[in-house]
Amino acid sequence: MTLPSADSSRPQQLVVLGTGGTIAGNAASATDATGYRAAERGIEELIAALPALEGLRIETEQVAQIDSKNMSIAIWQRLARVLAMHLARPEVGGIVVTHGSDTLEETAYLLQRVLAPSKPVVLTAAMRPATSLQADGPQNLLDAIIVAATAGTSGVLAVVAGRIWSGLELRKVHVLQLDAFDAGDAGPIGAVEDGRIRLWRPMPAGAPLGLARIERESSGWPRVEIIASHAGSDGAIVDAVLAKPQPTPLAGLVVAGTGNATLHAELEAALWRAQAAGVRVWRCSRTGAGPVIVHDERIPAVSLTPWQARVALQLELLEGET
């Protein structure tokens, strides 16, 4: 296969890392799109199923084999280390990571913040198992490899259903549709069309925090929980979480607020108590789109999804502990 947008000045050794997910899943029937078992096929099998890749210089490595709902800090750490190792190799032009869709947005956000690579790290996933009549994994994987091998791409990206997303903005927005991802107001970076990419805006950028930020033993990472404000909220859940004993005391809370990150009055009072007890509290909106604009900074607000905000707060708390 010749990549039409590839630049001969760019190293064309590609690395494809597997972590499991629906893209590697099997079901008993080709018509079963929901009752499958994730993470049953290895990355070599997924690559072998794409004859269009013949002739490309591709290495494969199985980093994990999980349903991504079970993603852990330890696997994040392992994946980040493996990525950093391959990114440092001058002959490697880009890396693809197969991943489950459920926590793809959290992994992508973490990797961009920690690595912010000058080479492309392209995550991809599937909404149907490999056995499905509507298997979307093969096309998504092929598209991701095209993006990873194309000159001008960089940073942590996600490629699903022909769209290219920034790892800082990605979010899963549908349970079943093949086109299950979005980026709120930002929209996609570009698209893969007939084997070529068309870009609409710049790649994700920023200074990398570095691997040292996340190298602390996973069991010792600061514990950050997510709660939501809703009709009838009170402070009971906050007080209950605060009361959980050592060895993992609560370090942070992310609150998914209503509308413009607003909070029920009783919940807000409990959050002030949490802050007084030394817990870092951030709030964001549960709506899924739009910037958060607030005038009361007693509880800081961020324009991130609750899941991104949790990762961001963990990274900030880790800064003081490394």
Name the descriptors.
alpha/beta; 13 strands; 22% strand; 7 helices; Rossmann fold; 3-stranded parallel beta sheet; 8-stranded mixed beta sheet; single chain; 322 residues; globular
How would you summarize what this structure contains?
The protein has 322 residues and is an alpha/beta fold.
Would you spell out the secondary-structure blueprint of this structure?
Elements: E1 13-20, H1 43-48, E2 58-66, H2 73-87, E3 92-98, H3 104-115, E4 120-124, H4 137-148, E5 155-160, E6 163-166, E7 171-172, E8 181-182, E9 190-193, E10 196-199, E11 223-228, H5 236-242, E12 250-257, H6 265-276, E13 280-285, H7 306-319
Parallel strand pairs: 1-2, 1-3, 3-4, 4-5, 11-12, 12-13
Antiparallel strand pairs: 5-6, 6-9, 7-8, 9-10
Helix pairs in contact: 3-7, 5-6
Pfam families: Asparaginase, Asparaginase_C
InterPro entries: AsnASE_II (IPR004550), Asp/glu_Ase-like_sf (IPR036152), Asparaginase/glutaminase-like (IPR006034), Asparaginase/glutaminase_AS1 (IPR020827), Asparaginase_C (IPR040919), L-asparaginase_C (IPR027473), L-asparaginase_N (IPR027474), L-asparaginase_N_sf (IPR037152)
Domain L-asparaginase N-terminal: 14-199
